[in-house]
Design a protein that fits this description.
The protein is an alpha/beta fold. It has helices spanning 19-24, 26-39, 43-48, 58-80, 96-103, 109-126, 142-151, 174-188, 207-219, 241-251, 258-267, 281-287, 301-308, and strands spanning 2-7, 89-92, 132-138, 158-164, 167-173, 191-194, 229-230, 237-238, 270-276, 294-298. Helix 6 (109-126) runs antiparallel to helix 9 (207-219).
């Protein structure tokens, strides 16, 4: 029997996330304060109050989700005895891979926060606001969507997230995304939902962002993770610092292979998975695999208190 620990990515955010953890545990408060200091902004105010409605700006969203995930992990670690070495694999959805690296001892918290804010800036600047788009396609399989894209020779449309059976996301220029969604409806009778994002993530339009981030990632101090990280790019376990750095650069414009990551876990005989961070999005995705696996989720004080009983 093997266990894995996983961390969510963009889309999991909501105003007030992590506040109950912050208010009740000194170790969680220390995480938020360290990130505030590293970024030289009060990210905690944006997370808890969001007076200026900027939490959904990707420069804030990315470090915010990581901060909440690490804070919850540190509470579980210090107060309830959870250890990263209790798990066989660690993974995170897109930016969640940075949370995984922090919790696995590969990357320190301040560096991760700085990198994620820079990553958000680079991704936002790669494509002008309004020019890019993303859409979730419901109920279709990846091969069907790929066929539609190839049949109509879309120049920018790509599958950006292969999340789970029946849930695929496409990215590209907004005008092509809109046409592609119409073709998917006509040819596959599948519904699409336009996503409220500020940039088309995880497609080749993000290559300028990866170039901006290259030196920062390569020059940052990483350690070998205490347990293997399953990469979004390869959907395989990685422990080499050099590989992890290069894959983080590639990840910015590459498909998130979450379905393949879960399939890797299944083949590796993982029977228990723990999602840590805001929301329950990854837990919901795993349920779509219709497999027998124990699922735990820790996103709030209430769930931590249940574990403590």
């Amino acid at each position: 029997m093997k266990k894995s620990i996983i961390f969510p990515g963009q889309g999991a955010q909501k105003v007030g996330m992590g506040r109950d953890i912050y208010d009740n545990f000194a170790v969680a408060k220390e995480v938020f304060e360290e990130v505030n200091d590293a970024l030289k902004i009060k990210l905690s105010d944006i997370i808890f109050v969001d007076k200026d409605k900027t939490l959904n700006h990707t420069i804030n969203t990315q470090p915010a989700i990581m901060t909440v995930g690490v804070a919850i992990f540190r509470v579980l670690e210090k107060e309830l005895g959870l250890k990263i070495n209790d798990y066989d694999y660690c993974a995170g959805h897109s930016l969640g891979e940075y949370t995984a690296l922090v919790c696995a001892g590969s990357l320190n918290l301040a560096n991760a926060a700085t990198m994620l804010r820079a990553r958000g800036m680079a991704m936002q600047s790669a494509v002008k606001i309004g020019e890019g788009g993303m859409a979730a396609i419901l109920g279709a399989e990846i091969n069907e969507i790929n066929q539609v894209i190839m049949n109509h020779n879309f120049s920018t449309v790509e599958i950006s997230n292969d999340n789970c059976p029946g849930q695929v996301v496409i990215s590209g220029k907004k005008d092509e995304i809109d046409i592609c969604c119409l073709k998917i409806k006509e040819e596959l009778s599948k519904k699409s939902i336009s996503l409220p994002v500020s940039a088309p993530f995880h497609c080749k339009l993000m290559k300028p962002a990866s170039e901006q981030m290259k030196d920062l990632i390569l020059e940052s101090n990483f350690q070998q993770p205490e347990i293997p990280i399953i990469s979004n790019v390869t959907a395989r376990e990685e422990t080499s610092v050099e590989n992890i750095k290069n894959l983080l650069i590639e990840q910015i414009y590459s498909r998130v292979r979450w379905r393949e990551i879960i399939e890797f876990m299944i083949k590796s005989k993982v029977t228990e998975t723990c999602e840590i961070g805001p929301g329950k999005s990854l837990t919901a995705m795993i349920r779509r695999f219709n497999i027998s696996i124990v699922l735990q989720n820790y996103s709030s004080l209430e769930e931590i208190n249940k574990l403590n009983k």
